[in-house]
Amino acid sequence: MTEVRYAKAVNMALDEALTEDPSVILFGEDVAHAGGPFGVTRGLLDKHGELRVRDTPISEATITGAAVGAAMSGLKPVVEIMFMDFATLAMDAMVNQAAKARFMFGGQCSVPMVLRMPHGGGVNAGPQHSQCLEAWFAHVPGLKVVVPGTPADAYGLLKAAIADPDPVVFVENKAIYSLKGELETGEGEIEIGKARTVRAGRDVTIVSYGAAVRTALAAAEALSDSGIEAEVLDLRTIQPWDEAAVLASLSHTHRLVILHEAVTAFGVGAEIAARMADIGFDELDAPILRVGAPFMPAPFAKSLESQFLPDTEDVITAVKQVLA
Q1: Among the options 29, 48, 80, 129, which is catalytic?
Q2: HEC-encoded secondary structure of the chain
Q3: Which residue segment(s) compose the domain that 296 sits in?
C-alpha cells in the first residue's frame, strides 16, 4: 500500500494504460506540454511521446468529435475537457454520435473512449467553471457515467473505463485533486456500476458520490455523537447505478437521504428517490429527502459559495428530519 493524492492516482492509471495498450491515446487542451490544467497528466508526454499524448486546439467539439472517430477506427482515446462546464460544446459528439454508434450500426462497432472532466465548486471559479452536469449524461442511453471520490476509486475506475468497449464519462471533482488516500500498487480495475458501503449504520442511509461522500461521512460522524448511526453508501457510478445496494441498505435502515453537490432540482438524487419510492416503498418509514445545491448559478465569492455548496449541517438537518 502507498499513500497518493487523487490527481496522482488518475495519472498512474493513465500511465499504466498507455504502457500496457498501444491503442490508448491521450489528448486535450494543455494535457501534454503543460501536464494538464490541474497537473494530472504531468510527465506522460515525456514518457510516451507526442504520438500518444497530444495537445489540441481550444475546441471541445473538435476534441470530442476526433475522439469518437478515433474510437470507431480502433483506438482507445482518453480525452480531457478542461472544465465540465465546457461539455456543452461536446454534446453533439457524445450524445448523438458516441452514445448511439453501437445502435446505429447494428452492433457492428463500438466507441471505446473516455471523456475526463473536472466538475464542482470549492475553488471560487464562478458559475461557468463550477457546475456539476453529470445528470445530463446519465440521462443518455449508451453512455456510462463514473464519479469516483477517493484516489483508489479514481485509479481502479479509470482503468475500468479505459478498458470498457463503450463511451464512459469520467468525472473528477477538482476540489479533491489533492486528497490523499491509500492505493495498493498494481491494484486492478473496479467494476463499473458497483457501489460500496463506506460506513455501516442502522438508523438512516445516506447515499452520495464523488467529493460529497466526504461531507456525508463527516455528517455521519457528528450524528454518531448523539447516538444516531448513519450508513454511508458511495455510488461511485451513477450510470449504471447500484440500485440493489441502495435498496439493501434501505431495507435495514428504513430511511434515506441522498446527497450530491449538483443542483437538487432534476438531479441524480431525484432519480434515486423516485426509484426507491417505487421498489422500496414498503421499507420506508419516512419520506426520502434530497440534499444538494440550490437552483441558481454557483457564485464567485468564497463567502457565498460556501453557502451555495451543501455542507455537513445540511445533511445533519435532513437526517434529523427523516428521524423525527
Answers
A1: 129
A2: CEEEEHHHHHHHHHHHHHHHCCCEEEEECCCCCCCCCCCCCCCHHHHHCCCCEEECCCCHHHHHHHHHHHHHCCCEEEEECCCHHHHHHHHHHHHHHHCCHHHHCCCCCCCCCEEEEEECCCCCCCCCCCCCCHHHHHCCCCCEEECCCCHHHHHHHHHHHHHCCCCEEEEEEHHHCCCEEEECCCCCCCCCCCCEEEECCCCEEEEECCCHHHHHHHHHHHHHCCCCCEEEEECCEEECCCHHHHHHHHHHHCCEEEEEEEECCCCHHHHHHHHHHHHCHHHCCCCCEEEEECCCCCCCCHHHHHHHCCCHHHHHHHHHHHHC
A3: 196-323
